[in-house]
Design brief:
Length: 120
């Protein structure tokens, strides 16, 4: 986790916002440092994305001691009109299913980690 993010040129299928949201949905108490390592972003980029997600109403947090505990608005609709009427929960279920199918067993998230979501 101490290594610098790998650079990537060109476009990707998933946005950094969706990656960060999925990382938070997987672990509501995760640290910015850990999200950055998982998503291969800088900590500053993750902080900006979290601010965007909170500003858009997709994410909230409460402070517990020295840590943040995040809550994902899983019933909120995705932003782009072409994605309507899909919800955050539906997006996360796809990402979680993908990770649980292809990731190693020790790092795979579970569907139960997404509030209000049942396994596909």
């Amino acid at each position: 986790m101490d290594r610098a993010p790998e650079s990537h040129a060109g476009w990707t299928f998933l946005t950094n916002h969706s990656r960060v949201l999925a990382a938070i949905a997987d672990d509501r108490t995760t640290r910015v440092r850990d999200i950055a390592a998982r998503c291969r972003l800088t900590e500053r980029a993750v902080q900006k994305i979290i601010a965007d997600l909170e500003g858009g109403g997709y994410l909230t947090h409460v402070r517990e001691g020295r840590s943040n505990v995040y809550s994902v608005a899983t019933d909120k609709r995705l932003r782009h009109p072409a994605d309507a009427p899909a919800t955050v929960a539906e997006l996360l279920s796809i990402l979680i299913h993908h990770e649980s199918t292809y990731a190693s067993a020790s790092s795979a998230p579970t569907a139960s980690s997404v509030e209000g979501h049942e396994a596909p």
